[in-house]
Write a structure and sequence with these properties.
138 residues, alpha/beta, Alpha/beta knot, five-stranded parallel sheet, 4 helices, globular
């Protein structure tokens, strides 16, 4: 199973460095590709065929770290690639959210879209550590 993150916009300081850090850590446990697109119009054409598509959306379901691990384990059993969609500064338009199989929230607060990428990578890394039986911080 491969994880693809399609993010609107290019990672910039101060978010580029922590994003690269978590991506490097995560790749030890899980194949991950980050695709940066210029705008929301370019998202649909980059979604891998037959992938399970997840839109990051404030109205989606929120997961604590152990729930992220359980969710990831279920997706591994499904044996489909995962594709996360992260919008730009205005989020994802309804037509892009409509492409998703499900929506996940990183919390009710408003956060910079580039920070959302870092948080997603960190949560995926934490979930892989939990599934590997390795220590993680609660």
């Amino acid at each position: 199973m491969k994880v693809v993150v399609i993010a609107v916009g290019k990672a910039k300081a101060p978010f580029a460095e922590p994003g690269a850090h978590y991506l490097k850590l995560l790749r030890r446990h899980q194949p991950v590709e980050v695709i940066e697109v210029r705008d929301e119009l370019n998202v649909e054409g980059r979604i891998p065929k037959r992938a399970h598509v997840i839109a990051l959306d404030r109205a989606g379901k929120a997961l604590a770290s152990p729930a992220w691990a359980a969710w990831l384990q279920e997706r591994r059993i499904d044996a489909r690639d995962l594709c996360f969609l992260i919008g730009g500064s205005r989020g994802l338009p309804p037509e892009v959210v409509g492409l998703a199989d499900e929506r996940i929230s990183l919390g009710p607060q408003t956060m910079a879209h580039q920070l959302a990428r870092v948080v997603l990578l960190e949560q995926l890394f934490r979930a892989t550590k939990i599934l590997a039986g390795e220590p993680y911080h609660h």
